[in-house]
Write a structure and sequence with these properties.
The protein is mainly alpha-helical and 106 residues long. It has four helices and no strands. Helix 1 runs antiparallel to helix 2 and helix 2 runs antiparallel to helix 3.
Length: 106
Amino acid sequence: MFFAITRPGADAYLLLAVAIFMIGALGFLVRKSALVMFMCVELMLNAVNLTLITFGAKLNDLSGQIFVFFILVVAAVEVMVGLGILIAIFRRRANTSVDNLSRMRG
C-alpha cells in the first residue's frame, strides 16, 4: 500500500506563524537582554514572512514574496546596526541588560 505525502494546507502554516510570532512577542516582553530582544524581533519578522508567503501561495500572487525580500533586507540592516550598538554598549558596560541602558547619560 502506497501512502502519498501531502503538503499541509494554509491553515497549518498560519498556525505555525502565529505560534512563532507569539514566542517572539513573549520573549521580547519578558527578557531583559538586548541581544535576546533582537532575536525575538527577528522571530516576529520571520512569522510575518511566513504569513506573506502562505497568502501569496494561496492567492497565486508573487507580491508576498517581493515583500518578504524587502523585509529580509530590512532585517539584515537591523542586525548590522543593532549588533554594532550592542558591541559598543558591551565594551563600555560589560553588560547588555536594557535596565542598565537608561543610566547611560553623559
